Amino acid sequence: MSSQLSALIKYVGQLDAPKNRIGVKVNGKILFLDPDEIFWIQARDDLARIHLAEVAYDVREPLSRLEARLPSNRFLRVHRSTIVNTAQVREAQPFDQGDQMLILRNGKRITTGRSYRKAVQEFLKRAT
Prior knowledge:
The chain is α+β, with helices and mostly antiparallel strands. 25% of the residues lie in helices and 37% in strands. Strands 5-4-3-7-6 form a five-stranded antiparallel beta sheet. Strands 8-9-10 form a three-stranded antiparallel beta sheet, covered by helices on one side. A two-stranded antiparallel sheet has the order 1-2.
């Protein structure tokens, strides 16, 4: 994709997307997602898979860039390859050597990583 087209897509996304939605390019289209609809995001090879309640979308965007565009008060990086919507976390269980097993409202189980242990513990402390 040319840099001009990429810049235009970014500009249009910023114009049309209210601050509470993010635009992601999926199959040549720009899809506007409400962050509340997102359950979790997983990095897979060179893709990020955004999981909603009923569907998942693959986007060619680094996880770190997606993380920067999401509301930091609602999304938490819990593993080098995983971001969760904290509003979708139903339960946290101790897992292995200080890590946690997060169970989302849809039943998905996500294991936290050692590098993100402190951020996860802070989230859990604020929640109780």
